[in-house]
Amino acid sequence: METSSMQTLGAVLFGLALLHTFGAKFFEVLAHRHPRHAGLLHLLGEVEVVFGFWAMLLLLAMAALAGGPAALAYAESRQFAEPMFVCVVMVVAASQPVLGAVGRLLAGLARLAPMRTAVALAWLGLGVVPLTGSLITEPAAMTLAALMLAPQIFRKDMPEWLKYGALGVLFVNVSIGGTLTSYAAPPVLMVATTWHWDTAFMASTFGWRAALAVLLNASVITVLLRAHLRDAGAGADDGAGADAAPAGAAPMSWTVSAVHLAFLAGVVYFAHHPVVFIGLFLFFLGYTKAYEHHQSPLILKEGLLVGFFLAGLVLLGGMQQWWLQPLVSSLGPTAIFFGALGLTAITDNAALTYLGSLISGLSEQAKYMLMAGAVAGGGLTVIANAPNPAGAALVRRGFKDGSIGALGLLLGALPPTITAAFFFLL
Questions:
Q1: Is the pTM higher than 0.70?
Q2: Which of 146, 334, 374, 399 could form a disulfide with 394 if both were Cys (CB 3.0 to 4.6 A apart)?
Q3: Do 209 and 424 touch, CB atoms closer than 8 A?
């Protein structure tokens, strides 16, 4: 099969995967209407399954048209370190001792704030925790924030529009909150070495703008949420329930929390060395089994589903370079910003900046605009930023039909995206 035909096939399947992603909620509605086929429809309604499903069809089509060795060679040419890392860091960061330690810290800070503790916790979860993504990586920050906020904000009795507004703020804030350093945000990591962007450059060029946008976004949505947030005794004052031990568990030990935090630090430090962080993860699983009376069930299913989603995105996204790269290289600096912001919603901001790093002769202004647009648009869809599927998997049960609608997320993310764009374009 000719290369051009294979590229066209990849683009078509990528487009179908996007349509499936935007229509995933429709399959959940059908599942309730047609219980006889609910199992299959629920599967097709899982956003985390979509890209893996269409990536499988891509490889099968490649095998049928170009031969099995060609399909296998393409799959093995892709880099899957990021999907594996997101899966591992999700499971470790969501473990009970880590959540307990973070919950105690946030609850202590919230009690010092001159406002209701529940309101302060919401603001910390939507504002401060996303900024820690610059230190502990965006996937870890997303996992912690989503689990801390889920019982507080993403509840069945919360107005649906407020949940989408909070989710949009969370996704956008995590996307831009990782830009204070050169290693924590996937889109930054893709270009940091090639463009010689170190942490000092990121903090002075992007970081302060991102921090202002994050805090403003968090403040606005917290004001809108404040009347619906639960007070002490309803699960808000204890860090959104993160500090609560599982039923029948031993009292939380600081020693166990310290060991879990050490595992998390090790996984983050070796984020670009799968052999090491997978080894640490296996030791972590053994440790949690040995001290299971201090644990709640690990979110292995959610972590694996998110890893599957991102792996599918890697396979499908790798076939889009032929049209994305010429498009980006043909734009002027301002057009690059808005083009990157829009393209991020249908690709993935890390893939977009990686393709930008392959373009020779980009001016410094064009590089800035490409990165700014890519991270500003990282909350518009579930696929726009690598940590988004992790957050979606952890909070979607609180939404109607147990799924997140693409249109609702887009509308919820537009205001914080405009705020981020304003600060980046100053």
A1: yes
A2: 146
A3: yes
